[in-house]
Amino acid sequence: AKKALQNPSSQVASLAAEYFLKNSGPNDEKDLQQILNEGKLPWNSKSQIYASLIKLIPIHKPLKREVLFTHLLADINNSKSAYEKSAYIIALQNSPSYLSFLLQLGQKEKDPYTLTTLTQTIAHIYKNPTFPLLYKGSLNPIYNKTNFFLAKACQNYDVGSLAIISEWFRTEKGLIRKYFKPDSSLRLAQKGLKLPRDIETYNEIENTLSVLNNKKFRSKSIEYNHPIQWKRLTNIHDTIHAEIICTKGKIEIELYPKLVPGSVTNFLELVDQNFFNGKIIHRVVPNFVIQVGCPRGDGYGSLDYSIRTESNTTLNYQKEGMIGMASAGLDTECSQFFITFSPTPHLDGKYTIFGKMTKGMDVMMLIEQGDKILKINLME
Questions:
Q1: Within 13 A of 333's CA, how many CA atoms are on the CB side?
Q2: Cα distance between residue 52 and residue 334, in whole Å
Q3: pTM of the prediction?
C-alpha cells in the first residue's frame, strides 16, 4: 500500500490512501508522515493521509498535531479547485475543535460543491462523541454560529446543503436544536424548491418532516413531463457512435436508441445544445464509476424536467464500461450520467443503461475529480 501511494495513477494512489485511512496503526505514523513531507502526493491522496495522521498522532504530542493542522489549513486556503479544497475540508471531519474555522469558511463560500462538503463535515463533527465535552452549555457561541450557517443554506435554497441538513436532523437531539428549528426552517425551504428539478432534496426534507411529526413518509413521485423526441431518431441506426473529448483524452461510446429511446434522445438533445461542454466530472470513484452532467457540480443539480427510467433486460452491468443514467428514484433522470470501471451487478434493474464505452479505459484511469468534458461529437 505504501508503494501504491507513489503510483502515477491518482486513482490507484487514492485507493492506497483509503486503505491507510481505514487500517493504519501506530507503526504507520512515521512512514506516512515522511511520505506526506515529500510533497509528491496528489491532493485526493494527500487529504486522506492527513486524515490518517490526525487519527494516528496522539493528543499528548500537541506540537506534532499543531504542525500537521497548520499545513492542512494552508492547503485548504491555497487549493486550486473546489474539489481539492473539499477533500482537505473532509480531513477535518473528526476534529471538532476546528468547527469555528469551518463555519467561518462557510460565511464567504459560494461554490456549491464546497458548501455541500462543508455542511457534510459540520454534520459529522456534531455527531462526534467528544463534541458535547468540547462545547459545553447551551449558551456556547458555536451553536449560534452554526444556526447562522444552516439558516443561510435554507434561505438560499441550497439543495446540496439542504439534503444533508435534512438527513442530519432526523436523528439530531443535541443543543443545536435550541437554535435551529428544522421543522419550520426545512418546511419553508421546501416551498422554495422547484420540481421536478429539486426532487431529491424535496424528498429528503419530506422524509425528515415526517420523522419530526411522527408521520409515515411518502416520497413524492414525478409526473411524466418530457415526451420522447421521436423525430430525433429519424434515419438513425440502431446503434449510435459518439466520442467524448475530455481533459485527459478521448472516450469512444455507443448508444442504443432502439432499446432505450427516451434516454438516448434526451442525451442527443443535450449534445445538440452543447450542454456537456465544460461540465465537470464531479464524481470519480476508483474501480466503480466516473459521473458528469451536474449543472451545480456537486451531484445535486438537474434541469427543469425529468425523463422516465428505462429498464431493459437486454442490457445489464455485468461488464465494464456501461453508461448509465444517474437517478434520485424512479423517473427522476435528467442530465447526469456515469460510466463504470468494472462490472457492477448491484446496479442492475435500478439505473437505466443507454450505452457502452467501446474504447478509452486508459483515459478513464487518468481522470481526476474536477476534470472536464470539452465536447461530445456524434458520429452519425
A1: 25
A2: 38
A3: 0.96
